[in-house]
Design a protein that fits this description.
Two copies of one chain form a homodimer. Chain A is mainly beta and 566 residues long. Chain A has seven helices and 32 strands. In chain A, the strands form seven sheets. In chain A, strands 10-9-12-17-14-15 form a six-stranded mixed β-sheet, with no helix packed on it. The longest helix of chain A has 9 residues. The radius of gyration of chain A is 23 Å and the shape is globular. Chains A and B meet through strand 1, helix 2, helix 6 and helix 7 of A and strand 1, helix 2 and helix 6 of B. Chains A, B: Its cofactor is Cu cation. Chains A, B: It catalyses: 4 L-ascorbate + O2 = 4 monodehydro-L-ascorbate radical + 2 H2O. Chains A, B: Its main location: secreted. Chains A, B: May be involved in a redox system involving ascorbic acid.
Chain lengths: 566, 566
């Protein structure tokens, strides 16, 4: 497990990797339609960071947007001891103002497949993301073998600007953003045409020539080798499924943690998830094969994304003879659950504590408030403050927390199968204060949305921690009755993102051993924007010295000025 | 002149006027096409402020945008003693972050026709503006009589978002934003249809019924009365001309200063200008009349805006029988110069000092830089700093000013009739440091742009001051030779905005008696965005105590923190 618990030993080999990035708006045509997006150093997606476990990553991030702040979250990196580098606006740091540079400095302590993305407004959906891959430290080995790697960063793509999307989500009456126009693989997709038109009645064949920004992605491979596919999803809305024509996939890693290997025909990837799967190129080498990515969990109105698995020396432009493989039916939840339930920890993974000190039960509901539609947790829809929590709590600015703390339970008896009896919600800063080194269970309870017979999948992502996924259940969480008996304490997987299935519940456990202020939220961008999250303020008194630049805004800036005037 | 020089006497009658505003994005259809714009309290344009000379205006401005900062500039208000309330991002204050509230508090010391607008990025072009009208103090009289008022806030309107516009202006290759799609009167216009289709071959009659956001503006008047039309322009690009069918206009005020009344058929209004004109309803009362606003100075691709002068008791919906009056030919500069040159101070206006202590000559050129197109002043294209000047200069943060100060002259011999021989420019913070109570002349020199035979009109606006417009000339400024002889020191008008005509120069004079940091720039939004401005840092050591909230960002925030960490 590389330097996981052996930081001192690894320190010698580890090194600092420096990056200078500039974030700016630019014209780009990810799916053939031109749009203004947010890129880094003129690239979309942003540059891939590649490091070794134990390395220190140093990113000097200049904001070259004109009027917008920016932050970058390093998704899956726990930021042990550096909570101010977690890159969450209003939570871990002041947004970086235009023309300012902020230096992110943090250790990637654990090998795995990660990514990074904007975490302010809906800037992730505007294209602010890229891959972050951490290899094992020198002298360490992965617990499986492979001959090469293929990287697949998956996303979805809207033609409307995020500004228009955000106004719609905040409007009365509410305007839903609809389904994305395209799915992208490594920032490339095809709108209004198909790479495999011969197999798609009524569609036009895409022009695949040249190096257009929407050109198909080609993964060159050699026959009879084993490849590690690193797959991560930073979609705004879509839950995805990936399948490679004729090839089996062996799942070996989830969210930067090794899992007990298992073989499948396809994998589900929710927004915020990352996986490594092994693929052996054991098929007829005279053909190329399709990689197909389709939508799950919502009636798809977005065409699957395709890429070419190119068996060399075949030409990359030689389209696969077979039709693109179909992903499972969008509403085949049994298929999805079967996949998710098979994800278990690889032998050697640290086991969870046998018991917890506290259980926080979070009911996920869709609600109304003053003509707006919101997502709420225990009837509070999250609204983030002007001054980030980490600084204001560290500096003891009491006014930054509401007097009434949010509830640890929603009680028993809530009918998760029907729209909320009382659909009204409130907004607030639903901050849960966690004591140092306590073991915390969180039960996420899904429910029916405002419309009858609607309950969606929500992938919840925790910052600052991996957690053990102890179990899942259908229907209402039963409470203490039989709770412990239903948990897997033997080999639960460690992850940073866990899904709740429609009408079901998911239980996770983690140890509050990383002082900081951490977001825990649905990773679907419009859902987070509509309030679907909570905050964990964890042993803030133990947080080390916060860099000035992380607190040079709002109340934390003015609190340090001696008088009312300067 | 009300409380101009009599603040103490007026203080008794003056009062504070409080406003609570919230700035947010919203859907709106100013010309029938829906778009996301920036509104205030759900309105577009923002609420009109109406006050009396000597009043204190207090605006608690909450930023409810999602990721963008915001400021509001009170155009024409000199902010005597309150330079931090001038509302210029990067210059007078830190941009107000999302969810923050900043309180603008300033005295409107002088009656007149003003307006306010965003002054960050191109937020003005996104719709962030409104009217500000200051009446004479109680017991004072205007120096002319009228029976009623009509308010006309003029703007132009693009269907592309400002984000797309800004990216295009900053791109390599450069992408010009083109001409606006519509002209708006009080935020209303008509795209792709005409209110007077009967007179406009090939056009469709607009649907004028109901209270649509693009419904025609109606000005109800009674026959045989005199009305004061308050006209101001906050256009992004367009220079305008206003004409009212069959009616003469008597110009009595320009930019909050009384002028020697003169009668015209039409008035030019450049972006940043404001005028009061008197109109007597002495025409056939059985008819209504068109108010027509057209484009000047650029080959118009935007249809004139129309409004209805509604002689009561005629129905407002009764369209004028006559065709809308035509505005002058766009390139009839002789007409424009004749109008501008007629604007002279009303008797009683303070005269300028007879001589100046310093003359700053500013050559306006269009240039190239590393594949970008820029506007430059004495070969420096303005780039604003992350930390606003007022705070950083007041606090003596030396690193905020470049070591080399910009030049006071561009020398003689520059050929203004041709594209620049050396089109390359540099970028920088072109800050001119002004000594307290010195009299400063500024000569603005226009020139040929990058393309042959192109020289545009540029309306320059000065913050913190009115200035006397001493004179205009065609061609290259002659330097000392005959300079004084060409100036009008007898009755030059006081203004805050002055135009330079193609290939010509304009000379202004002001007394540096208002400590602060003041922008001086072309009021055309894309030109300013491309660097067309300079900064006057005026006796900053005499600036009073700056409110914390104006400096709670960047280097001015961190400078006040004792250590590197918090």
């Amino acid at each position: 497990m590389a330097c996981g618990g052996l930081l001192l030993q690894c320190a010698e080999a580890a090194k600092a990797r420096h990056f200078k990035w500039e974030v700016s708006n630019m014209f780009w045509s990810p799916d053939g339609e031109e749009k203004v997006l947010i890129g880094i150093n003129g690239q979309f997606p942003g540059p891939t960071i590649r490091a070794k476990a134990g390395d220190t990553i140093v990113v000097e991030l200049k904001n070259a947007l004109h009027t917008e702040g920016v932050v970058i979250h390093w998704h899956g990196i726990r930021q042990i001891g550096t909570p101010w580098a977690d890159g969450t606006a209003s939570i871990s740091q002041c947004a970086i103002n235009p023309e300012e540079t902020f230096t992110y400095r943090f250790v990637v302590d654990k090998p795995g497949t990660y990514f990074y993305h904007g975490h302010y407004g809906m800037q992730r959906a505007a294209g602010l993301y890229g891959s972050l891959v951490v290899d094992v430290a020198d002298g360490e080995d992965e617990p499986f073998e492979y001959d090469g790697e293929l990287n697949l960063l998956l996303s979805d793509w809207y033609h409307e600007s995020i500004y228009t999307q955000m106004v719609g989500l905040s409007s009365k009456p509410f305007r839903w953003i609809g389904e994305p126009q395209s799915l992208l693989i490594n920032g490339r997709g095809q709108f209004n045409c198909s790479l495999a038109a011969a197999h798609t009645p009524g569609s036009n064949q895409c022009t695949t020539s040249g190096n257009r920004q929407c050109a198909p992605v080609v993964f060159p491979v050699l026959p009879n080798k084993t490849y590690r596919l690193r797959v991560a999803s930073t979609t705004s809305l879509a839950s995805l499924n990936l399948v490679v024509g004729n090839h089996k996939l062996t799942v070996v890693e989830a969210d930067g943690n090794y899992v007990d290997p298992f073989v499948v025909d396809d994998i589900d990837i929710y927004s915020g998830d990352s996986y490594s799967v092994l693929l052996t190129t054991d098929q007829n080498p005279s053909s190329n094969y399709w990689v197909s990515v389709g939508v799950r969990g919502r009636q798809p109105k977005t065409a699957p994304a395709l890429a070419v698995l190119n068996y060399r020396p075949n030409r990359a432009s030689r389209l696969p003879a077979l039709a693109p493989p179909a992903t499972p039916a969008w509403n085949d939840y049994a298929h999805s659950k079967a996949f998710t339930y098979r994800i278990l920890a690889r032998a050697g993974t640290p086991p969870p504590p046998a018991t917890s000190n506290r259980r926080i039960e979070l009911l996920n509901t869709q609600n109304r408030m003053d003509g707006h539609i919101k997502w709420s947790i225990n009837n509070v829809s999250m609204v983030l403050p002007a001054t980030p929590y980490l600084g204001s709590l560290k500096m003891g600015l009491k006014s930054t927390l509401a007097a009434v703390r949010p509830a640890d339970t929603f009680g028993r008896g809530y009918d998760v199968t029907r729209p909320p009896a009382n659909p009204n919600t409130t907004v607030g800063d639903n901050v849960y204060v966690l004591e140092h080194n306590t073991t915390v269970d969180v039960v996420l309870q899904n429910a029916n949305a405002l419309a009858n017979n609607v309950s969606e999948v929500h992938p919840w992502h925790l910052h600052g921690h991996d957690f053990w996924v102890l179990g899942y259940g259908d229907g209402a969480f039963p409470g203490d009755a039989g709770y412990a008996a239903r948990l897997n304490l033997k080999n639960p997987p460690l992850r940073n993102t866990a899904v709740i299935f429609p009408y079901g519940w998911t239980a996770i456990r983690f140890v509050a051993d990383n002082p900081g202020v951490w977001a825990f939220h649905c990773h679907i961008e419009p859902h987070l924007h509509m309030g679907m999250g909570v905050i964990f303020a964890e042993a803030v008194d133990r947080v080390g010295e916060v860099p000035k630049a992380a607190v040079s805004c709002g109340a934390t800036a003015t609190a340090l000025m001696a008088n009312d005037h300067v």
